[in-house]
């Protein structure tokens, strides 16, 4: 039995389908079962609730062989560190109680980074909790998610791409469908042991200027890159009601990305199949057509 958290998220929803296609028994922890696709709901065992709740975890992990663990986003959490530790500690304790043999977690590249990195540092803290559970643990450690750019469909329709890094700075990235595929491979073959970080990167590294050019090619309209100042990002978040700590967590995360937190992992990373141009053609361009319809 494989237990999957966040089964309606970008990664979890793909992972569930991959596991079902391989004939695996799947149990999901989901806050609202109505958000599961009807076809999926008929094929999985559903535990409703949050996976920082010990009672929910006890019901979900009874008899489980493996667990896929993702901390769900919560912009209203007091801090990213507290939020990740809340889930990580609850998950690790439940894994230990039930003797779950294998855990795959979604983390971030850059383990060993010594400077504050906001949400990325919080993910490292979660890894430490899960690795100490006694289970074999693999932290899938990724750079920037290509799929985050789907939040900029409106701006891209007006010809603008915005990030905080310099136009000429190389930026590693990964497609979420490749994260799901890597997680599925680990969860189906449980021959691995011990604890390890597994850097997983897309096969190419592009600068923001190059990303804008590729996007323009694939969506059929000119797109230019405009760098967003970190102060502007902070002011935008504050105007949207974000707390001072939430702003610090996000700006520290992007500052670490801009400072090269992913650089050491790139040479040793497992390379996923989806390059940036392919992702733009197969994911971003259709999303833009749907938005324009």
TrEMBL record:
Residues 2-264 form the NmrA-like domain. Pfam families: NmrA. InterPro entries: Ergot_Alk_Oxidoreductase (IPR051604), NAD(P)-bd_dom_sf (IPR036291), NmrA-like (IPR008030). This is NAD(P)H-binding protein. It comes from Microbacterium horticulturae.
């Amino acid at each position: 039995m494989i237990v999957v958290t966040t089964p309606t998220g970008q990664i979890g929803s793909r992972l569930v389908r991959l596991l079902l296609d391989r004939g695996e028994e799947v149990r999901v922890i989901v806050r609202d079962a109505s958000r599961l696709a009807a076809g999926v709901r008929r094929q999985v065992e559903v535990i409703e609730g949050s996976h920082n709740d010990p009672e929910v975890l006890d019901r979900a992990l009874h008899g489980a062989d493996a667990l896929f663990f993702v901390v769900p986003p919560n912009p209203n959490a007091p801090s990213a560190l507290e939020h990740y530790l809340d889930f990580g500690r609850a998950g690790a304790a439940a894994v230990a109680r039930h003797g779950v043999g294998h855990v795959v977690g979604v983390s971030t590249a850059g383990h060993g980074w010594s400077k504050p990195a906001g949400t990325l540092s919080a993910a490292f803290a979660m890894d430490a909790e899960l690795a100490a559970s006694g289970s074999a643990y693999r932290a899938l450690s990724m750079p920037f998610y290509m799929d985050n750019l789907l939040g900029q469909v409106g701006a891209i329709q007006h010809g603008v791409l915005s990030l905080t890094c310099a136009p000429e700075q190389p930026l590693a990235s990964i497609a979420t469908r490749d994260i799901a595929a890597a997680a599925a491979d680990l969860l189906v073959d449980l021959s691995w042991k011990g604890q390890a970080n597994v850097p997983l990167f897309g096969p190419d590294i592009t600068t923001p200027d190059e990303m804008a050019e590729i996007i323009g090619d694939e969506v059929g309209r000119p797109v230019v890159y405009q760098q967003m100042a970190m102060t502007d990002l902070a002011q935008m978040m504050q105007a949207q009601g974000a707390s001072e700590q939430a702003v610090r967590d996000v700006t520290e995360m992007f500052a670490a990305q801009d400072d090269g937190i992913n650089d050491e992992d790139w040479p040793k990373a497992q390379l996923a199949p989806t390059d940036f141009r392919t992702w733009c053609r197969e994911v971003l361009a259709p999303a833009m057509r749907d938005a324009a319809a």
